[in-house]
Each structure stands twice: as structure tokens, then as C-alpha cells.
């Protein structure tokens, strides 16, 4: 039932998100504090399988965040427009396109997880045509965290979704 509710919420938010932010009845609310999951702040990717230290294409790090738009509430829906800065370090890249799997954990006042949202961030690594090298890249992306107003949110925790192999290589 919870998965269906989340799907419906996301579907409605995609079709109505621009309307929610511009309506006069939406009230501005305080944005929650944001923390980085220390064990999931870095990400490795490879274009080859299996991933090893010898074939890492790039390393990404969650570097910073900002709320550049107001957090709003309308009726029973809250929207937190979060901008996230990633630092992408090319190692053995052969492509400019990257995809970063990200999660946002919503915690209640007891610091208990009550909702998890997942995002895929796409971007490109900068490439210097003169030197034919990939360059360290700052990638900024905005996500809208949309949730129902049934639990008070005390904080957000963001991190990369990592499998066991990536966790082993990073630690």
C-alpha cells in the first residue's frame, strides 16, 4: 500500500509541481537541515564489469547543498527544492555521460527513518578538446523532495546508493 501511495504522490507531483510552487495558497515553511551520510558520500563507477580499483572511470563526491527556492506546503503536501553540488573526478573515463544514484532519507523528530526517496542524477564530465583530457567537474542538480504532511520532518540525509562492491572499494 505504501508503494502505491508513493507512486501516486510522485505521479501527481510531476504533473502538478510547477502549479504548486506558483499558487498563492502555498505557504512558505522552514526548510529542514540536511546532512550527508558519511559512509555514502562518495561514489565510484566503471564502464567495465566487474568494478575494480584498476578500472574506475570516475569518482563522485557530494560536496554541498542549498535551498535556492522556498520550501512550501499546500494542503497536505510539502515540497523541499534541494540543490546539490557534486564534484566529479575523472580517473579512466572514456565517456562524458554519467549517472549518479542518490537517496534522500527523511527523518522524524526521534531521528527515525519514515520515508526514503530515490533519484538518478545525470550529467556530463567536462572534456578539454585541446588536451583531450577529462577534467574535474562541478555538477549541480536540483531535486524536489515531495512528501505528505503526516510526519514532522526533523532532517534530511542524502547519500549515494552503493552496492557491496563499491562499499568495499571506498572503505
User: In angstroms, what separates the terminal alpha carbons?
Assistant: 37 Å
Give the helix tally: 2
Q: Spell the H/E element sequence.
A: HEEEEEEEEEEEEH
Strand content: over 45%
* Average residue-wise pLDDT: 86
Give the strand tally.
12
Category by helix and strand content: alpha+beta
Q: Tell me the major beta sheet.
A: 6 strands, antiparallel
Radius of gyration, rounded? 18 Å
Percent of residues in helices comes to 10-25%
| Outline | elongated
Residue ranges: pLDDT <50 for 5 or more in a row?
3-10
Describe this entry's structure for a reader.
This protein is an alpha+beta fold. 16% of the residues lie in helices and 48% in strands. The chain has two helices and twelve strands; from the N terminus they run αββββββββββββα. The chain has helices at 2-22, 164-170; strands at 27-29, 34-36, 42-45, 58-66, 71-74, 77-90, 97-107, 113-124, 127-128, 133-134, 137-148, 155-160. Strands 1, 3, 4, 5, 6 and 11 form a six-stranded antiparallel β-sheet that branches. Strands 2-12-7-8 form a four-stranded mixed β-sheet, with no helix packed on it. A two-stranded antiparallel ribbon has the order 9-10. The longest helix is centred in the first third of the chain and has 21 residues, at 2-22. The termini are far apart.
Amino acid at each position: 500500500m505504501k508503494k502505491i501511495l508513493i507512486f501516486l504522490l510522485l505521479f501527481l507531483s510531476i504533473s502538478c509541481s510547477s502549479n504548486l510552487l506558483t499558487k498563492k495558497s502555498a505557504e512558505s515553511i522552514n526548510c529542514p537541515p540536511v546532512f550527508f551520510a558519511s559512509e555514502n558520500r562518495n561514489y565510484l563507477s566503471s564502464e567495465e564489469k566487474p568494478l575494480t580499483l584498476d578500472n574506475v572511470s570516475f569518482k563522485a563526491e557530494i560536496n554541498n547543498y542549498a535551498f535556492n527556492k522556498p520550501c512550501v506546503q499546500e494542503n497536505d503536501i510539502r515540497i523541499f527544492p534541494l540543490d546539490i553540488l557534486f564534484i566529479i573526478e575523472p580517473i579512466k573515463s572514456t565517456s562524458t555521460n554519467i549517472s549518479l544514484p542518490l537517496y534522500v532519507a527523511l527523518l522524524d523528530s526521534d531521528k527515525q527513518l519514515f520515508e526514503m526517496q530515490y533519484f538518478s542524477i545525470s550529467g556530463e564530465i567536462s572534456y578539454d578538446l585541446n588536451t583531450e583530457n577529462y577534467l574535474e567537474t562541478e555538477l549541480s542538480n536540483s531535486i524536489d523532495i515531495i512528501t505528505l504532511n503526516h510526519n514532522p520532518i526533523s532532517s534530511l540525509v542524502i547519500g549515494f546508493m552503493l552496492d557491496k562492491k563499491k562499499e568495499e572499494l571506498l572503505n
